[in-house]
Design goal:
The complex is a heterodimer of chains A (567) and B (431). Chain A is α/β, with parallel strands linked by helices. Chain A is 31% helix and 26% strand. In chain A, the strands form ten sheets. Chain A has a five-stranded parallel sheet. In chain A, strands 16-23-17-18-19 form a five-stranded parallel sheet. The radius of gyration of chain A is 30 Å and the shape is globular. Chain B has two domains: 5-97 and 174-189 and 355-430, FAD/NAD(P)-binding domain (3-Layer(bba) Sandwich), CATH 3.50.50; 193-351, 3-Layer(bba) Sandwich (FAD/NAD(P)-binding domain), CATH 3.50.50.60. Chain B is globular and about 65 Å long. The two termini of chain B are 33 Å apart. Classes of the chains: A alpha/beta (567), B alpha/beta (431). At the A-B interface, helix 2, helix 3, helix 6, helix 7 and helix 10 of A face strand 5, helix 2, helix 7 and helix 9 of B. Bound molecules: flavin-adenine dinucleotide (FAD) (2 copies) and iron/sulfur cluster (2 copies).
């Protein structure tokens, strides 16, 4: 390298997050003694406007061609610092992050001296690597201006319609013969009590009539290839195979009701789930004559019984059906045995009050002592534990309704594998960031909405449908995507085409192709996530990982153990 | 007059997300924020449930992304004073209040604040710390431009002397900016209720009864006490109780609704307390535990099983201060007996209400509010749509919701505005 290396190091106090433990001035002083470092400073918050301005000013003033920030974590802050370098005219890949918050001040909170020593070590390692960084250029690729939405429940319908209105053509894929999803089975909806059928009618019409929406009914996904901007989705539509190209994919496959097999004497006509109750109410084929007492049991299978989570909608749904029964048959006693009651927000609290007014009786049980259902002399008895009296109170029931949680569809696992997006511990699709990116997947160009993401009501499913449409519109409207140049590349002179890399790559980004010189591995840049799996498995050392080259990493490692000045 | 495509009112997480999505899709946005910095309430929080991510650490990059975006113009310290016209072409007037510091010139060095002799309680820190008359609300404020508090300023003139860039302008006047936009998104968030009106809990009278937002500032490492949870008398806390639904789910002041986030933020605050001080006893007094979101039940389990947070069902009738300023909480776990819990600090999880000035704004926008002053929906199942075409809504100002829901809602409102701008959707019936 002919150019003189001029490194600037910026060490962040992060208020007292770092500065309260690590002796930042000492680390700055140390950094300034390291080879190639021509400038070192500290900032109260390097990420504040003030901090960023000082990075830019130092780049100009000291003619820096490498920048290091030692602060919190690249996960949240690397893009910001890279962009700052870029604004100051420096290639953003000449930036190196050193993590002294997560790796020093947080984990060694009670050993400030060792934390400071470790911060020095990490900075030294960063400097060693930075000296060997190479400028890289971002990759750009085109985006096919259409979308695939998988699942035509209310959330998928909403997403499809909004994308279509935003000007893009949409393929809406539904495995059933009709669109509408779970709502097709329901009777009336909280909080308005309108008929589900009426609710759906207009909305289904709007989807069916939109000229930019192509419906694929009785269709399943067979395979998904490609990457953001250029997906290829292979469908099985009524037994016929079809292939669709799209720029983005939205997952809106919903959820289903948990089947409480073996719990609460479930089975038959008298112990049913809420969904079964709705179906009966809808058909109007429930024989009310023999029914005097209805008992609903909340959290049946949820919150630690079978699944761990709270299913969010079953309290309101129980309250709804209890209220509807009570309103239609005032002489029937309707009890809801519950632990907590998720009547959150504005409308639902009021709705709950209405149900109480209508005469629905609420019985609270402790989670450690859930109700028991038993049969005695042909009668159904529900024992509900009364906490204050410390005893079980028996309620005779002619109908027991189990409020069971929503659970993931069984075929979601397969879909998650095809799309290479994760499921969480609760089996629902797992978003990129639980706080900040609720409808994005970590994989670019794939989004999610509705109950596929976790239990939620109609309003929130619709909101997420719109949200996914917004996120998906971004690449579609731009027409191109940038992707990181931190990817692998193959030295074809060393490669022997053994294919080990192809078999280990989790993104299908590297494959062996025939070339004039024989079989060689080839990388599809946009697909590559730079995970390095191929690089570490190549027996010929033919794979170079940009930004994490052998040379860069070796220098960093050497600096970890050799504290003497190296250059 | 400038032509912008979308106006976003309110720079909290919901408004920022809406602005950001639109800008990323190539649409020009003007983001109007009432205070000196964008960020909203989330900037005031210490950590966030249910992951305990540091709030400002994950928010600051989003604030910068918004501010630096080439398609977003951020107008802080500003308010929308008039909106005329209709979807596709709203004529908007925005009042820019004077900072008395030139925004173009100030580089945020803070020299003026260092010399300012004034000490004024800082609202951002819930009045628990003082700032100067020349100030920014918090260190990560975006934009990093100082302002002079001329109402309290004693006109000593020091700031003007010291400002090396000559940015101080004592005679700056309010300005009115006009623009035309195709659609508008309101995202004005919430305020916390001042619980002094709930006299039985003694807020304002008792030293160690504080609100949850005050607690968030106390336990925050960058907060007024550097993260130390201290009583007024400087003594260490030993027993803290959180009281849920203070002024909420309460028909007395016609606030029957549930604020949706307080059960979980109390859980978070108790967990954080246990992390800082494992020996402190923590109690949460609640009516119904609202643990319905993704990962919430698991979070509550952890609070109980791993941290030893105690949940007590029972709404306190009264709090009395003892001579030693400890507090006695009178509550009934069941209807027939009263129990007393003695603690040395009480945190009130107060009702969250639509932010101040929302009625005036609704009038300017020509949209309706509901009975509790949340923005009213045209269709109860579509959370994005106000009663006026082309004016969409996002975040807490429409109804109670937590951060991820506000973010999804921000994106949702953005898609509705995109329908107008990109799709030219004026009257296709929305669903
Ligand atoms: C008993 C019950 C009563 C309820 N009552 C109410 C109420 O009153 N008010 C309220 O607000 N909410 C209620 N809900 C919740 C409501 O049903 C959901 O909020 C809503 O259905 C979620 O919509 P969705 O589009 O996300 O999912 P779904 O409605 O589940 O739709 C998903 C769609 O995707 C399709 N699909 C799934 N996998 C694939 C695949 N691999 N390929 C192609 N297509 C696929 C499915 O066939 C389905 O059509 C109730 C839920 C239940 C269970
Ligand atoms: C003590 C406490 C702890 C919490 N903890 C958590 C948590 O851990 N996790 C979680 O998910 N949620 C938490 N929340 C809830 C969270 O704060 C809200 O969900 C979120 O901040 C709402 O975002 P928003 O953008 O809708 O509103 P806000 O954050 O309130 O932002 C609204 C913005 O609009 C501005 N504004 C208001 N009026 C006008 C006007 N007329 N013109 C222009 N601008 C205006 C305001 O200044 C503000 O910047 C907590 C809430 C409290 C009270
Ligand atoms: S750069 Fe990271 S460490 Fe520094 S203030 Fe910002 S968040 Fe904290
Ligand atoms: S919503 Fe209600 S019934 Fe459903 S799991 Fe949660 S607490 Fe139980």
């Amino acid at each position: 390298m002919t150019e003189e290396i001029r490194i600037g190091v910026f060490i962040c106090h992060c208020g007292i997050n770092i500065g309260g433990v690590v002796d930042v001035p000492t680390v700055v002083e140390y950094a300034s003694t390291l080879p190639n470092v021509v400038h070192a400073e500290r900032n109260l918050y390097t990420c504040s406007s003030e901090g960023l301005e000082s990075i830019k000013a130092a780049i100009k003033e000291h003619n820096l061609n490498r920048v290091i920030v030692a602060s919190c974590t690249p996960r949240t802050h690397e893009p910001l610092f890279r962009a700052t370098c870029k604004e100051a005219g420096l290639n953003p890949y000449l930036f190196e992050f050193v993590n002294i918050r997560d790796q020093c001040s947080w984990v060694h909170m009670h050993e400030p001296e060792s934390a400071t020593e470790k911060a020095k070590d990490l900075v030294r390692m960063g400097v060693a690597k930075a000296a060997r960084l190479e400028p890289l250029e971002e990759l750009t690729s085109d985006v096919i201006p259409s979308a695939v939405v998988i699942g035509a429940g209310i959330s998928g319908m909403t997403a499809a319609l909004s994308l279509a209105r935003n000007g893009f053509s949409v393929h809406l894929i539904e495995k059933e013969k009709e669109i509408g999803g779970m709502l097709r089975n329901l009777y009336r909806l909280y909080p308005t009590d309108e008929l589900a059928e009426e609710f759906l009618e207009q909305r289904i019409k709007a989807v069916k009539e939109h000229k930019r929406i192509a419906l694929h009914l009785s269709t399943s996904i067979k395979a998904v290839e490609g990457y953001v901007g250029k997906f290829k989705v292979i469908l099985d539509e009524n037994g016929v195979e079809k292939s669709i190209d799209a720029g983005v994919i939205i997952v809106a496959t919903g959820a289903q009701e948990f089947e409480p097999e073996g719990l609460y004497e479930y089975g038959g006509e008298r112990v049913i789930t809420q969904l079964q109750l709705e179906e009966k109410l809808k058909k109007g084929d429930l024989d009310w004559a023999g029914i005097k007492n209805v008992v609903m049991i909340q959290c049946a299978g949820a919150r630690g019984e079978v699944v761990g989570y709270c299913s969010k909608i079953c309290c309101m749904n129980g309250i709804k059906n209890a209220k509807l029964i009570k309103e239609a048959h005032p002489d029937i006693n309707v009890f809801i045995a519950h632990n907590e009651l998720q009547a959150y927000g504005e409308e639902y609290e009021l709705y709950y009050r209405d149900a109480k007014k209508a005469g629905v009786r609420f019985l609270r049980f402790p989670l450690e002592r859930r109700p028991q259902v038993r049969r005695s002399d042909g009668k159904l008895i529900v024992d509900v534990f009364h906490e204050r009296m410390q005893l079980d109170i028996p309620f005779e029931a002619d109908l027991v309704v189990l409020s069971v949680p929503l659970v993931q569809n069984p075929d979601a696992t397969q879909l998650s594998k095809m799309l290479k997006v994760p499921l969480g511990q609760d089996k629902f699709f797992f978003e990129a960031h639980i706080k900040l990116r609720p409808v994005d997947f970590a994989t670019d160009g794939i989004f999610l909405c509705g109950t596929a993401h976790g239990p939620k009501d109609i309003g929130e499913s619709i909101a997420q449908g719109y949200a996914a449409a917004s996120r998906a519109t971004i690449p579609l409207a731009r027409g191109y995507v940038h992707s990181e140049p931190i990817i692998s590349s193959v030295n074809e002179e060393l490669c022997v085409g053994c294919g080990i890399c192809e078999s280990v790559c989790p993104y299908g980004a590297i494959e062996v192709v025939e070339t004039e010189e024989g079989r060689r591995a080839r990388v599809t840049g946009v697909k590559c996530k730079g995970c390095g799996t191929c690089g570490s498995s190549c027996i010929r050392r033919a794979i170079k990982m940009y930004h994490f080259t052998d040379e860069q990493l070796m220098a960093q490692e050497r600096a970890a153990v050799v504290t003497e000045v190296i250059s | 007059m400038t032509v912008k495509s979308v106006l976003v009112i309110g720079g909290g997480v919901a408004g920022m997300q809406a602005a950001f999505d639109l800008a990323e899709a190539g649409i020009k946005v003007c983001l109007v924020e009432k205070t000196l910095s964008i960020g909203g309430r989330m900037a005031q929080l210490d950590k966030t449930f249910p992951t305990n991510d540091c709030a400002i650490c994950i928010l600051a990059p989003k604030m910068m992304d918004c501010y630096r975006h080439e398609n977003i113009e951020v107008l802080t310290f500003s308010e929308v004073i008039s909106v005329e016209g209709e979807v596709g072409s709203f004529k908007v007037k925005i009042l820019r209040r004077p900072r008395f510091i030139d925004e173009e010139i100030c580089n945020g060095c803070g020299d003026c604040a260092r010399v300012c002799p004034m000490g004024i309680l800082n609202k951002f820190d819930m009045d628990l710390r003082v700032r100067g008359g020349a100030y920014i609300p918090f260190l990560q404020a975006v934009p990093l431009i100082y302002a002079l508090d001329r109402e309290k300023c004693m006109r000593c003139g020091l700031c003007k002397v010291v400002c090396g860039k000559d940015a101080i302008q004592y005679d700056q006047k309010p300005e009115i900016v006009e623009m035309t936009v195709s659609a508008t998104i309101v995202a004005t968030g919430f305020d916390a209720l001042d619980p002094s009106s709930i006299t039985e809990y003694g807020y304002g009278r008792y030293d160690n009864v504080i609100t949850a937002l005050e607690f968030e500032r106390l336990i925050c490492a960058a907060g007024p006490t550097g993260g130390h949870v201290m009583r007024k008398d400087g003594k260490e806390v030993k027993r803290i109780a959180w009281i849920q639904c203070v002024g909420a789910r309460d028909t007395r002041d016609n606030r029957p609704y549930c604020c949706s986030v307080c059960c979980m933020h109390a859980t978070k605050e108790a967990i954080l307390t246990k992390e800082h001080y494992p020996e402190v006893e923590t109690y949460i007094l609640y009516t119904d535990l609202r643990c319905f979101g993704k990962g919430f039940q698991e979070y509550v389990n952890r609070a109980k099983d791993d941290y030893g947070v105690e949940y007590i069902r029972g709404k306190p009738g009264e709090i009395r201060e003892k001579e030693d300023t400890n507090l006695e909480i009178f509550y009934s776990p069941s209807s027939d007996k009263v129990e007393i819990l003695e603690v040395d600090m009480v945190v009130l999880c107060t009702a969250l209400i639509p932010s101040e000035g929302v009625e005036a704004l609704a009038e300017v926008l020509g949209v309706e509010l509901d009975e509790y002053k949340f923005f009213k929906l045209k269709d109860p199942y579509n959370f994005t749509e106000t009663t006026r075409d082309g004016i969409f809504v996002a975040g807490y100002c429409q109804a109670p919701r937590d951060i991820p829901e506000c973010i999804a809602h921000g994106s949702a409102a953005a898609s509705r505005a995109m329908e107008v701008v990109l799709g030219g959707n004026r009257n296709e019936k929305s669903q």
